[in-house]
């Protein structure tokens, strides 16, 4: 039996899309490729490098605290995306599937997830500061703003809870 749209939830598809984005584009292999093969002074190069923001890694010359914070940030982006997709009422109150409210709720979820994940993981970095937390949250929100439309598209057409 094939799964149809009626079994697809907006929260589930958005979370899977976020997981794929973080696993693929946050991987050390993609990050190394983007750093070596893109020009940060072009729009395309900037965007391809931005995709690496929730980077995760297992080995580095950085301190253990910073590696842990980076890995935790990647995990929190996915977890918080699921939480915000579940909590944001736009997609749950929409009468019809595929409405703009569903798209914007998915997009906003990723913006909030990126900002909060960066803000929270700043506490685990070496020498955390309030300014560093604000700057990290700004980086996370920028990432969510320019990449979150992918999550918004993924949530289109999914059901929003109980019928």
Strand content: under 5%
Mean pLDDT: 87
The gyration radius over C-alpha positions equals 17 Å
Estimated structural class: mainly alpha
Secondary-structure element series: HHHHHHH
Determine the N-to-C terminus distance.
22 Å
**Helical amount among residues, as a percent range?**
55-70%
Q: In total, how many domains does the architecture comprise?
A: 1
Low-confidence stretches: 1-5
Overview of this protein structure:
- This protein has 163 residues and is mostly helical.
- The chain has one domain.
- It is 68% helix and 0% strand.
- It is built from seven helices and no strands.
- Helix 1 (10-25) packs across helix 7 (130-155) and helix 4 runs antiparallel to helix 6 (100-121).
- The radius of gyration is 17 Å and the shape is globular.
- The two termini are 22 Å apart.
- Mean pLDDT is 87; it is low at 1-5.
- The chain crosses the membrane at residues 12-31, 72-91, 103-124, 136-159.
- Keywords: Membrane, Transmembrane, Transmembrane helix.
What's the SSE blueprint?
Blueprint: H1 10-25, H2 28-37, H3 43-50, H4 64-87, H5 89-93, H6 100-121, H7 130-155
Short description:
By secondary structure, the protein is mainly α.
Primary descriptors:
163 residues, mainly alpha, 7 helices, disordered N terminus, transmembrane, transmembrane helix
């Amino acid at each position: 039996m094939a799964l149809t749209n009626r079994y697809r939830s907006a929260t589930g598809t958005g979370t899977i899309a976020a997981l794929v984005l973080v696993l693929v584009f946050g991987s050390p292999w993609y990050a190394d490729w983007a750093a070596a093969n893109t020009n940060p002074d072009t729009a395309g190069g900037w965007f391809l490098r931005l995709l690496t923001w929730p980077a995760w890694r297992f080995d580095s010359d950085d301190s253990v605290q910073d590696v842990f914070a980076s890995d935790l940030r990647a995990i929190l982006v996915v977890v918080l995306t699921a939480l915000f997709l579940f909590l944001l009422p736009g997609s749950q109150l929409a009468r019809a599937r595929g409405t703009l409210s569903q798209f914007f709720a998915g997009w906003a979820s990723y913006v909030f997830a990126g900002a909060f994940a960066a803000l929270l993981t700043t506490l685990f970095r070496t020498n955390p500061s309030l300014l560093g937390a604000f700057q990290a949250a700004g980086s996370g929100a920028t990432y969510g703003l320019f990449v979150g439309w992918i999550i918004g598209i993924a949530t289109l057409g999914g059901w929003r809870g109980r019928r």
